[in-house]
Specification:
Layout lengths: L6 E9 L22 E5 L7 H18 L4 E6 L15 E4 L9 E10 L2 E9 L5 E2 L10 E2 H12 L15 E2 L12 H8 L1
Parallel strand pairs: 1-9, 2-3, 2-4, 4-6, 7-8
Antiparallel strand pairs: 1-5, 5-6
Length: 195
């Protein structure tokens, strides 16, 4: 914890069955946003074309369909300000983190800043060295699904932790294929979002 009372949580998804870091929880349970929808921005380098934007939109829709209401207020292009040493987040954003300072097998890392179990800000940093496949990754089983990584990290963004079920979107390893239709969620962990 910093001198400002922030709790910093690092969450990530690894590439194809490699180890990822886990979620640290507050003593009183998982951190959550005070209300939804939450503003979020994207680095133009993350969504440079229609397919990437569609993957990000589908990842947001995946979560919103599970809770039955809007979670994300997508505002478009991120202003370029970086995560600031654990004390603040200028904009909730998803961006390419270059240079990548985490293990090379980690596709993305989410940093959540919370105080007293309330999320105050979050950033999703993406490894620019990861070879992502777009859409449903048809015929590209050796590459990491951009859409699944987006959905997984957005789960951390809204306060979800890792899950040991390989069919769960919050499983810590990025598995082949990009279709989100067959992915499950932990209804018990999602419950605080719908109440």
């Amino acid at each position: 914890m910093t001198s400002h009372g922030w709790r910093i949580v690092f969450l990530g998804v690894s590439v194809l069955a490699m180890t990822a870091c886990g979620k640290k929880k507050n003593e009183d349970g998982p951190a959550r946003w005070e209300s939804f929808p939450v503003q979020i921005y994207t680095d133009p380098a993350i969504v440079p074309n229609a397919q990437s934007r569609a993957d990000f939109q589908e990842a947001m829709s995946f979560w919103e369909s599970k809770v039955g209401y809007r979670l994300f207020d997508y505002r478009g292009d991120w202003n370029g300000e970086r995560y600031n040493n654990g004390d603040s987040v200028s904009q909730n954003s998803l961006y390419n983190a270059a240079p990548w300072t985490y293990a090379t097998n980690i596709a993305a890392q989410t940093v959540v800043l919370s105080r007293e179990n309330q999320i105050e800000g979050a950033v999703i940093m993406v490894n620019p060295g990861t070879s992502f496949c777009p859409g449903d990754c048809v015929g590209q089983s050796s590459r990491t699904s951009q859409k699944k990584v987006f959905a997984h990290e957005l789960g951390h963004f809204i306060g979800m932790g890792h899950n040991n079920d390989t069919s769960n979107v919050m499983y810590p390893d990025a598995l082949p294929g990009g279709n989100l239709g067959g992915l499950s969620i932990d209804a018990n962990e999602l419950l605080p979002l719908v109440n």
